[in-house]
Amino acid sequence: MIDAAIKRDFAARARAGDTVFLPGCFDAMSAMLAEKSGAPAVMTSGFAVSATHLGFPDVELYTMTENLTVVRNVVNAVGIPVIADTDTGYGNAINVMRTVREFEQAGVSAMIFEDQLAPKRCPAAAKQVEILPAYEHAGKIRAAVQARRDPDTLIIARTDATSEDEAIARANLYVEAGADIIQPISRTFTDIDGLRRLRAAVGVPLSLQVLGWLEDLTPDQIREVAGIAVFPLVGLMTAARAMQQNYAKLMQDLSTKSLPNPVMGMPEFKEFIGFEEIEDQQAKYLVMDLKATGSLG
C-alpha cells in the first residue's frame, strides 16, 4: 500500500507537468516486476485486464467489482502509485461516484474516466466508438471530483472524440468540471503540434497512452505536454509473445531444454515473490513453532 507522502508527491508532479513515465500492468505480479525495474508508478490497463482475466477483448465485459479486485491486488502488492483504468465509470454520474469511492478506498492514486457510451470499446482496436454528449460526461467528471475524499487522488478525463476541434472543446468542459489531467486518444492528434495545441488550450497537463505514432515521440517531446506518460501494453505483449513461443516449443519437444526465451530460475523467483519473508513470519507466528520453542505453555 502506498505511503501518503508518495501519493502526494506523485499528484504534485503530474499536476505540475513534471512528466511521470510509467508502464502498464495487468495483475499483482506484473506490477511488482515493474516496481522492481524502477518504475515510479503503474497503470492497470483495462485492455490488459480484460485479456488476462477473462480472455476477451476490451469491450467492458468485466464488471466494476471484477476490475476492482484486480486493482486492489495490485495496490496491495506494490508501494508505488497505481493509476486505475476505470473505463466509463460503469454507468451514469451516480455510478461514477460509487466507482470513485470504491477505487479510492482500494488505494489508487488516480482514475481515468472516458467519455464513451457504455459499454465501451477500446479505440486502439475498435473501428468505431460512440461517445456521450459532452455535457453528460462533464457531469460525470464533476461527480467524480465531488466523490473523492483525498484531493491528491487525480481525476483523469479522457476524450475519445476523433475530431481535434471537438476533442479540445470537450477537454475544456472536463477541466471546467474539475479534471486534473486530460487524456486524448492516439488517433485524434497526429503529431506533436496537435498535442501542443491541446495542452495550451486546456491549461492542464496531458496523460498520454504511448501507442501507435506516439511511440515515435522523444521523451523530451512528451515532457513538453504530459504530466503522465504510460506505456500501457509493453508488459502484456511481452508476456504474451514469450509464453506463446515457450509453450509452443515445450509442446513440440516435450522438454524445457531448448526454450526460445529464458525463464527465471526457482531461487530467483522465490526471492522475488517473497518466500523468505513468509518463512520468517511462519517461524515467528505459527502456534506450532511457538510451542516447539517453549514460548507457550
From TrEMBL:
CDD domains listed in its UniProt record: ICL_PEPM
Listed name of the protein: Oxaloacetate decarboxylase
Organism, scientific name: Lutimaribacter marinistellae
